[in-house]
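Duplicate of #3305? Posting structure anyway:
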């Protein structure tokens, strides 16, 4: 009983990985599933500065907006 379950499970795993690789995936390359390119270091640096900078500056910009309304 366990032998057949093991064989079916093993075959299922192989089929899933074959389909995964055939449909455009390279099978676990680091950074493959990220929404930005990590190979261009300059562009990555500017994107990270923009992403982190926008989050860090948001409270100060909101405070400035509230204080300038009067």
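Output from current build:
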């Amino acid at each position: 009983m366990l032998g057949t379950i093991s064989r079916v499970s093993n075959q299922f795993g192989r089929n899933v990985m074959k389909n995964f690789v055939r449909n455009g995936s390279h099978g676990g390359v680091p950074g493959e599933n990220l929404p930005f390119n990590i190979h261009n270091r300059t562009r990555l640096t500017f994107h990270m500065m923009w992403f982190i900078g926008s989050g860090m500056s948001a409270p100060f910009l909101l405070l400035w907006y509230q204080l300038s309304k009067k």
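Confirmed duplicate; merging threads. The longest helix spans residues 41-68. Residues 1-68 form one domain.
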